[in-house]
Structure formats: structure tokens, C-alpha cells
Amino acid sequence: MQRFILSTFLILFSTLANAQSLTAQLSGDSARFAYTSDVLGEALGRLELNAGILYNDNDDYAVSVGLQVRGENLDAPLLVSLGARAYYGNIGVYTATAVALGGDVVFAPISIPGFEIGAHFYIAPEPVSFSDAISLRDYGVRVGYQVIPLSTVYVGYQKFEIEIENVGDVLLDDGIVFGLQIQF
Q1: Which of these ranges, 17-31, 53-67, 147-161, has the smallest mean pLDDT?
Q2: What is this structure's pTM?
Q3: DSSP collapsed to 3 states, the chain
Q4: Which of 76, 136, 164, 174 could form a disulfide with 98 if both were Cys (CB 3.0 to 4.6 A apart)?
Q5: What is the CATH number of domain 2-183?
């Protein structure tokens, strides 16, 4: 039992010692919040753990937990993350569960300090969508600027939709978003 407690403490402490970020994103009818933390390594890339929630003014919501491998291209100012996310959503009287694959990319040109362009895309087709869900798609693009060190503001477009059995596509979000990402 002591080993378990010590191991749990060390894992939690090591997570707190690594790079982390909080993201808050708002649109006209939705809000999205996310937390990301490095779990392992820096030598060949990072393994990141992320968790988030998206909810809208219809009281629909989707929560997600994921793991991504993040790497930098040394020849270009490009960050690429690939991984999987598990989603659980409540859309009216329907529930959706899915395991999505995807990733994100951020391009930060050296010639324009603080500027970045990013995109994310996650998809869960029918074989990995459960409950009332047939499929799930979560994607978006953004343009950001690092206003102060470790803080980036951005504007972008996001679409999050879940196809529900016998209903069709249900949008949790579709439109312009404004966001803030803080790294620590």
C-alpha cells in the first residue's frame, strides 16, 4: 500500500513539474476549456495528456480525455501532435461515446515572432462510436498571437458535430471562436 501511495504521489508530482497549459475558448453560444500536461519525455518528443469540456447554450456537452505524441520539426517552425481522444457527450436525450484519432499542427514562422497558425482534427467513425452516436467530428483552425510570454490569444473557426442514430448530425459548436491559452 505504501508503494502505491508513493508511486501515485510521484506521478502526480512529476506531472506538476512538467509543462502545462490551460485553454479557454468562447463563441456566441458555447464555451470550451482544456488542460494539457506533459506526461513523459523531451528527448524524442513529448507524450501529452489532455482533458477538456465543451458545452453550449442548449445544455449539451462533451468531455474528452486524450493522449498525444508531440514533436517538433527542426527544419521548420512546426509542432505536430498525433494521438487519440475518448469523448463522452450528452446531447439532449441522447448520449454519445467515441474514441477518435487525430491531431493538431501549429506553424509559428520565425520571421513573425509571436504569430502562429494552428489546426486540429479528430474523427471517430462508426466502428469506434458507441451509445447513440454513429460518428464524431471535431475540427477547427485558428490564428494566434503571443501577447506576453507564455500567453497566446487567438481567433478561429471550430466545428464539433456528432451524428446520432435516427436523428442525423447534431452540432455542439459551429462558428467563430475567441480563445486564450496560458502555459506554465
Answers
A1: 17-31
A2: 0.86
A3: CHHHHHHHHHHHHHHHHCCEEEEEEECCCEEEEEEEEEEECCCCCEEEEEEEEEEECCCCEEEEEEEEEEEEECCCCEEEEEEEEEEEEEECCEEEEEEEEEEEEEECCCCCCCEEEEEEEEEECHHHEEECEEEEEEEEEEEEEEEECCEEEEEEEEEEEEEECCCEEEEEEEEEEEEEEEEC
A4: 136
A5: 2.40.128
